[in-house]
Amino acid sequence: VRVELINTGSELLLGQVNNTHLPWLAQELFTLGLRLQRQVTVPDGPSIREAIVEAQSRADLIIITGGLGPTSDDLTRDYVAALLGRPLVLHDDIWQKIQARFRARGWETPAMTRVQAMVPTGARVLANNYGTAPGLLLEENEQIYVLLPGPPRELKPMWTEQVLPWLREHRPVAPLHQKLWHVLGVGESRVQELVEEPLRQLGALEIGYCARPGEVDLRVISPDAALLERAAMLVKEKLAHLITSEGTASLETTVIRLALEKKRLIATAESCTGGLVAHRLTNVPGSSTVFHYGWVTYANEAKGQELGVPPEVINQEGAVSEACVRAMAQGALGQSRAHVAIAVSGIAGPSGGTAEKPVGTCWLALADAHEVITAVHRLSSDRETFKFMASQQALNLLRQWLEKQ
Amino acid sequence: VRVELINTGSELLLGQVNNTHLPWLAQELFTLGLRLQRQVTVPDGPSIREAIVEAQSRADLIIITGGLGPTSDDLTRDYVAALLGRPLVLHDDIWQKIQARFRARGWETPAMTRVQAMVPTGARVLANNYGTAPGLLLEENEQIYVLLPGPPRELKPMWTEQVLPWLREHRPVAPLHQKLWHVLGVGESRVQELVEEPLRQLGALEIGYCARPGEVDLRVISPDAALLERAAMLVKEKLAHLITSEGTASLETTVIRLALEKKRLIATAESCTGGLVAHRLTNVPGSSTVFHYGWVTYANEAKGQELGVPPEVINQEGAVSEACVRAMAQGALGQSRAHVAIAVSGIAGPSGGTAEKPVGTCWLALADAHEVITAVHRLSSDRETFKFMASQQALNLLRQWLEKQ
Questions:
Q1: How large is the ipTM?
Q2: Of all helices (H) and strands (E), which one includes residue B301?
């Protein structure tokens, strides 16, 4: 089954929004045993028609996102109806539902929303419980067309609750198996040197590498589950402690899972990461059980007042120093009565660097009841990448500590 | 000039990474007066060749990202060389530079990295100061090919410092003008109702709408700068206070800019957003001047200990209540001696909701020396979207307050 994805929307090609549908749908398809073979982004307008015609010549399943809204640049519904020769007719239930949604919010129903209740003849309507535009599913010449609304919080439940079960029933395929490891501390070519040859000797595996800020991803895919298990054992043996997390589990998910398992409370004291470590931890459901206290002590005064960093430490060593992160971590541990506290202080840039402490310098400290561990890194000089890489190092220290408990 | 972008990498089609090149390059191209007409993502392997052949039939400028690394799945360089009939030759300077990079880190140079020093005959080499793989620029039959490495922190400076100046010199085009507004508080069709007709009467403008979590984007494009100025005046008149920020400026950039202009210190007291408000503020260079103190009081005890929220408020009203956010904001204001403090407490889910306070409920408070303003919203029930929408509301309250100063 060849699958292609068409994302419509001029905003995507103007760079005004990220395409979050691609990664999400790709992962969803994979769980069905389907690999996305190609993705194309086209602007609102006639290019949508072109892209559909091209996909028709290759694909068995064509997924199209966006262009189902009520405004003048929403044209996907019209093009698909015309290409498949299926005239649009008003679907009265949908129209009632759209009007009810507006009434519930106390708004009048704009006349232009009526176009969203127009359905190509013979199409299966995918109900939208989170917005006005319904999705559509059509079959023609053994090809399947799935039209989904652009907003992710409308698209995702529609896929999960309606498209996924339909595909499982109508297009069952043999599952694919995949393992993914996130590796911190060595480069991409070193990862390949460590694992590729031994993996090749095991059998026919698809192996992929991807260098990212703060990590390298290693991916192994096979239809043979037993072979993949042997590959996983080999990878864990070769990379061992360099692996920070597995699969779709992010580093923060791993940290929260370990903290829940081991019943340990975490506290954060952030300067340069400015709340990102806390934000990543609190993205994980259940984090409130193990994360109670976080400080964003962005100013030196705040480090003193909130975490008890002595003024002489900052005066003599500076805020970006081993002594400062040590005091921050100890202060956060004491104030929060957590089992472990992580502190980060660095120079995110673009300004603030010196010859001795250039932009990208990052000090970290981890404190528990017994000791304080510190580390220093020279990370990226791009502000947002720096913050992310610093948060990676902080979360990784927490992971290593939790694994030893 | 027709521009197409080819992003290579199986990890993109497996959903393991976001395509951040697309939005970034799209915005860069626009500043040159170039519109990206199509973007395609293909997996590592022969599909790269297919995509290049297709783009050759349509485009004047073809940008290809990824597949220049040292590992076995990096094939872009080979395909382009073969398609254009340009044999690969070893570029000694690059090879020396690659070896020097490894030596500087105290690592041995893996033999496989030598392939990155192979250059198609006649290609212009784009130096990579942040990694090992150089980029390449080729001209053939009036078409331009630009090959860039996948990692963003290598691609971005290479584009800005080398490709951009080359394009400005060799392919000058008439500039395009664009205005973009971010609108909070009404739906997409309401935005169209308010502005579309009057804009159409002004002249030939390209108008686009995009509904996103926590905002609607309105975009107007024209080659006529004076017409666009008139359009901008009209939009500001019609949407007025609904506009939260303009252009590529994010809401947090607007907040920090206003705080710097008006010399006002901001403090944050976060529960449900878990550090996201502080993280967004500290993404903006210069934020350290106006943001000194932030608290992530995720547990009730932390709200009491750090911000002085009285236990009876939490016992009687709950942590997600007007009384609680009011006390949090006042506590943060007092502790930080800032001019304004924002507090957020809500139910991010997936659990923790009740009939009275369902998942998605969010209370906010803004405190200054004179008063406390509060607001309650029912936001998304998806955890990460909820956090983002709550941070939008918090930053928007700060923006409104700052504008009145």
A1: 0.75
A2: helix B300-307
